[in-house]
Amino acid sequence: MRARQDPPWTQLQLAGQVGLSRESIANIEGGRQQVLLHHALDIARALGVTLAELAPDTLPSPDFTALVKDETAERREFVESALIKAKPVPQSRSA
Questions:
Q1: From CA 23, how far away is CA 13, in angstroms rounded?
Q2: Which of 14, 44, 56, 84 is deepest in the core (most CB within 10 A)?
Q3: How far apart are CA 22 and CA 57, in angstroms?
Q4: In sequence order, which residues have a C-beta less than 8 Å from that of residue 26 and are 6 or more positions away?
């Protein structure tokens, strides 16, 4: 976790600050444990960074098709519509 390195925190110090075990911090950093949102917020606050700064530079694209395969056509269309709307829109540059 890059954010933990500036200022330098040990895993044990960060764990104590956010109420997790050192092992949990190590597993989260190593990608072996998913982090709950409220723990991610606690970690970000303790380190003085945003959630975006904690996230990896690239995230795997989830397979939403698998999530909605048993849903009705109407529900699948709703999810697809929501995903399209959720895509980031490039900001226009002012001259």
A1: 12
A2: 14
A3: 24
A4: 11
